[in-house]
Design brief:
The protein is an alpha+beta fold and 433 residues long. It has helices at residues 11-15, 17-28, 32-45, 50-67, 70-85, 91-107, 111-124, 129-141, 145-158, 163-175, 179-192, 200-212, 218-227, 253-256, 259-267, 269-282, 313-318, 320-326, 330-333, 424-429; strands at residues 250-251, 288-289, 295-297, 300-307, 310-311, 339-345, 349-354, 361-369, 375-379, 382-384, 391-394, 400-404, 410-418. The radius of gyration is 27 Å and the shape is elongated. InterPro entries: Asp/Arg/Pro-Hydrxlase, ASPH, IPNS-like_sf, TPR-like_helical_dom_sf, TPR_rpt.
Length: 433
């Protein structure tokens, strides 16, 4: 069906349509400053005109973008807000003004203010589910999943086939670890093809949920996510990527170019092991359980020395020689998209197939205490085992899975490094993960 053009003029604004059109024409032509002056003149002349006020807001918005000015953007936000308080504002204009106001508030990181604006929209137009959907996103952006969940439950009561509400509701259930329950919502939401559903996160979580219940259909969704351009490949499903980086599951030291680091780790592996064991015996509390919900079962803890390129001074007091050794290798200590940590995994542990968040790092595993058999790691379609004193290198943006079925614990040392093809500029400027 063709979209109805929104009605933006009230009775009064129809009488000054020619002047409004002239100002709008300037704005459409990209003559931002002139348009703003024209709309300001109209607002001064006709302070009760909603359309003139809206035009002023849009011109300030355009100018904020042109000048990259947050101050100007705040002006636009205030003007959008003024539109709504004028008399006889057409409802289409109220919707456009408040929606844009909320959007610009989010852009500035003013999540609470945008939530208030979205609540106003829902209050004014209770039967319009799209505003409830936006409000749900507002709550999610604030990390308030329980209010978001209530909003989407209400949308699905009113509009049981709303695909946008379905994917978001499924996403929330999955975050609550309600794996089987999340699947139909994510699946039907994606199948709806509704605007806002075609997002890599939803393919990612649907596939993950299906894998966890042992359903091979997961790969059908990964394939679709790949075809839609959300994933680099069916196996490489990280969502924070730099395009064009060499992509393969397993790497050799020579391929990475970090041969000095690998040599140093392998040469000093006993020192690294002994300091790690010392900490493990003395202060078990320093090893924290893995908390990303990646385990099907078992006991898996880590002791972190560097996180997002920041050294944990306190942790390094426990393993001073290991930390001193690493200081020489900025590709590892400066990797703001990775960690350096000990990882201990006890028998009977299985780590679900999962994918790291970014293709900007490679992950080195140095074997420290490795049981004779029963421990293995799969990355993409190839299984490997650890060896004491040897480094394995893989790209954890590819799907990987770990089994620990030995008689005793397994201890490794994990060192993340920048992907070797990233430029010095990228290493300096990529945001941390």
């Amino acid at each position: 069906k063709k979209k109805k053009k929104p009605k933006l003029l009230n009775k009064f604004d129809k009488t000054i349509k020619a002047e409004l059109d002239a100002a709008e024409k300037l704005r459409k032509k990209g003559k931002v400053e002139e348009a703003l002056r024209a709309f300001e003149a109209l607002v001064n002349q006709y302070p009760e005109s909603p359309r003139a006020r809206y035009g002023k807001a849009q011109s300030e918005d355009d100018l904020a973008e042109k000048m990259r000015s947050n101050e100007m953007l705040q002006k636009a936000i205030n003007t959008y807000d003024e539109v709504v308080s004028l008399p006889n504002v057409p409802s289409d204009l109220i919707k456009l003004s408040l929606k844009r106001e909320a959007d610009r508030q989010q852009f500035l990181g003013r999540m609470r203010s945008s939530l208030v604006t979205l609540q106003k929209l829902v209050h004014l137009f209770p039967s319009d589910t799209s505003f409830k959907n936006d409000l749900g996103v507002g709550y999610l952006l604030m990390g308030d999943n329980s209010n978001a969940k209530q909003v989407y439950e209400e949308v699905l009561r009113l509009a049981p086939n709303d695909g946008f509400a379905k994917v978001h509701y499924g996403f929330i259930l999955k975050a609550e670890n309600k794996i089987a329950e999340s699947i139909p919502y994510l699946k039907e939401g994606l199948e709806s093809g509704d605007p806002g559903t075609d997002d890599g996160r939803f393919y990612f979580h649907l596939g993950d949920a299906l894998q966890r219940i042992g359903d091979k259909e997961a790969y059908k969704w990964y394939e679709l996510g790949y075809q839609r351009g959300h994933f680099a490949s069916v196996w490489q499903r990280s969502l924070y990527n730099v395009k064009g980086l060499k992509a393969q599951p397993w790497w050799t030291a020579r391929e990475t170019g970090y041969t000095e680091l690998v040599k140093s780790l392998e040469k000093n592996w006993k020192l690294i092991r002994d300091e790690g064991l010392d900490v493990m015996d003395k202060k078990r509390s320093l090893f924290l359980p893995e908390d990303e919900n990646l385990r099907e079962k078992g006991d898996w803890s880590q002791f972190t020395l560097w996180q997002q390129g920041r050294k944990n001074e306190n942790a390094c007091k426990g393993v001073p020689k290991t930390c001193a050794l690493l200081e020489r290798f900025p590709e590892a200590t400066g990797c703001r998209r990775g960690q350096i940590k000990y990882s201990v995994m006890h028998p009977g542990t299985h780590v679900w197939p999962h994918t790291g968040p970014t293709n900007c790092r490679l992950r080195m595993h140095l074997g420290l205490v490795i049981p004779k058999e029963g421990c293995r790691i799969r990355c993409a379609q190839e299984n490997r085992t650890w060896e004491e004193g040897k480094v394995l290198i893989f790209d954890d943006s590819f799907e990987h899975e770990v089994w620990q079925d030995a008689e005793s614990y397994r201890l490794i040392f994990i060192v993340d490094v920048w992907h070797p093809e990233l430029t010095a500029q990228q290493r300096r400027t990529l945001p941390a993960i």
